[in-house]
Structure formats: C-alpha cells, structure tokens
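User: Um, what's this?
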Amino acid sequence: MKKLCCCRLDCKQAGLAALTFCIGMLTGLLLPIYIVAVLETAMLILLGYFCLFKW
C-alpha cells in the first residue's frame, strides 16, 4: 500500500492551527487586542514559512 505524505502534512497543519488558536486565546485574555493581532500575524507568517520551506 502507498504511503501518502500529504496525510502527514495535514496533521502538522492541524496541529499548528490548534497551537496558534490556543496561544491567541491565552494572549487575548492578558493583552490588549492590538498586541494580540500583531503577535498572531507574526506567528502565522512564521509558521506558514516553516510549513512551506522548512518542514
């Protein structure tokens, strides 16, 4: 049976999305909204870069 590498990538993407969401929720409780928006945008750009080019 063939092993598809796209299944592994889908699991990584789901895990990164869940991690980003949880960190965003936690920072939303502690910091003002504009700081949360900047942090989440930077994290999504960084994680997207890693998904596309490093992993």
Notes: The mean pLDDT is 75. The chain is about 85% helix and 0% strand. The two ends are 24 Å apart (CA to CA). The helical segments are 5-30, 33-54.
